[in-house]
Amino acid sequence: MHIGEDLREVKLQRLLKAEGYASIEELYPIVLGDVVSPAICIDPDCDYICKMEPDQEEGYCEACGTNTVVSALILADLI
Predict the structure, then answer these.
(1) In total, how many domains does the chain have?
(2) Nearest one of 62, 12, 21, 20 to 42, comparing CA atoms
(3) Which of the listed residues 10, 12, 54, 56 has the most CB atoms within 10 Å of its CB?
């Protein structure tokens, strides 16, 4: 799934803020050793946040019913 750079940055910043992190560098070491990662729906009209696998690119969004939930590590292009 291709995510435009502008949308990627907006969604990543919303996710980090909602989870209480100032930057991806702060979140990365915590998520790296875990089986789940914060994730956000990338539909422009939805900001549903949940926990999913760190490599999730098409997770199911319980709010809008689409497969558009992406993990923070994917949004940050770290994996």
Answers:
(1) 1
(2) 12
(3) 12
